[in-house]
């Protein structure tokens, strides 16, 4: 394939720039630190954040392969499926979402959006859902029909790394640390492959037991052929009880941050990312003069019914 498919190029015109915003906060500056947010939450009102970064070249691949249907998986509040359903409709692709758990008596706002945008919902038991995680390539799902393209959970494919890597080139300041929240680790993998030499990369695990992300990220890097000699690590102690779980301290932090900076956060990903960075700053992890860029990965739609 060469370049972007024409349908994808047309959709690209709807995207807005992703600016850098400095977080001017005495808690940070008092330690001699500069903290900046890469505002990927502002890319698009629906397909925002790292979800679009990951989908961009995956959907490009699907279009060039002649696919007419993209199948993927996620939870009932999945930002990934939310972005896929909207983008699929915009690109003229049918979409199918395998949803973890039984069909609820009443669909939540996220699921209602998926239906409104034409996604076919297939609800699975948690056991069957876990089994789908074994299929990591676009043609690997058993029973795929001609024209169907399989997209693993969260867009965790080597193809996704190219779109994520583009965000690094957009950062027009020097920085020492690049930080992002991790669900599947795909976004961090894309950042690792594009980060300037000498950059420290931190992934804040949004789920309990996030140590497995190290192996998954390394596998994505190996599959993509991206440079992977950067210094990176996963921080696992800020999950606040597990994926989509919260604590009063986390919610208080988010409310205070939003009040003081007028930047909306959600408690699943970016809220935990900044909660972790503030704690690391307070504990002296970063030396004075350090400049940190944190990626705001969007996902704000999930706040409507999930914290």
TrEMBL record:
Reported cofactor(s): pyridoxal 5'-phosphate
Key words of the record: Pyridoxal phosphate
Keyword DNA damage in annotation: no
Record Gene3D superfamilies: 3.40.50.1100
Keyword Coiled coil included in the entry's annotation: no
Residue ranges of domain Tryptophan synthase beta chain-like PALP in the record: 17-298
Stored Pfam families: PALP
Family the UniProt entry places it in: Belongs to the ACC deaminase/D-cysteine desulfhydrase family.
Protein name: Pyridoxal-phosphate dependent enzyme
């Amino acid at each position: 394939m060469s370049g972007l498919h024409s349908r994808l190029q047309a959709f690209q015109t709807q995207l807005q720039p992703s600016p850098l915003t400095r977080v001017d906060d005495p808690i940070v500056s008092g330690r001699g630190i500069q903290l900046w947010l890469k505002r990927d939450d502002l890319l698009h009102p629906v397909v925002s954040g790292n979800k679009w970064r990951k989908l961009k070249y995956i959907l490009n691949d699907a279009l060039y392969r002649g696919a007419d249907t993209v199948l993927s998986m996620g939870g009932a509040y999945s930002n990934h499926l939310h972005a896929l359903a909207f983008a699929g409709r915009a690109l003229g692709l049918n979409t199918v979402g395998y949803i973890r758990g039984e069909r609820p008596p009443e669909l939540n706002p996220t699921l209602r959006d998926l239906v409104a945008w034409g996604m076919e919902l297939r609800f699975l038991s948690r056991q069957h859902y876990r089994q789908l995680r074994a299929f990591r390539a676009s043609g690997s799902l058993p029973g795929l029909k001609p024209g169907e393209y399989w997209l693993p959970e969260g867009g965790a494919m080597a193809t996704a790394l190219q779109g994520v890597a583009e965000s690094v080139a957009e950062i027009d300041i020097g920085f020492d640390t690049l930080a992002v929240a991790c669900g599947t680790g795909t976004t961090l993998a894309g950042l690792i492959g594009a980060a300037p030499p000498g950059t420290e990369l931190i992934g804040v695990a949004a789920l309990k037991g996030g140590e497995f992300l190290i192996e998954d990220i390394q596998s994505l890097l190996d599959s993509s052929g991206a440079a992977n000699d950067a210094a990176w690590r996963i921080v696992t102690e800020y999950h606040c009880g597990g994926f989509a779980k919260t604590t009063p301290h986390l919610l208080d932090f988010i409310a205070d941050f939003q009040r003081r900076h007028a930047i909306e956060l959600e408690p699943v990903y970016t809220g935990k990312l900044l909660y972790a960075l503030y704690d690391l700053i307070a504990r002296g992890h970063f030396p004075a003069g350090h400049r940190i860029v944190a990626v705001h990965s969007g996902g704000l739609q999930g706040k409507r019914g999930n914290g």
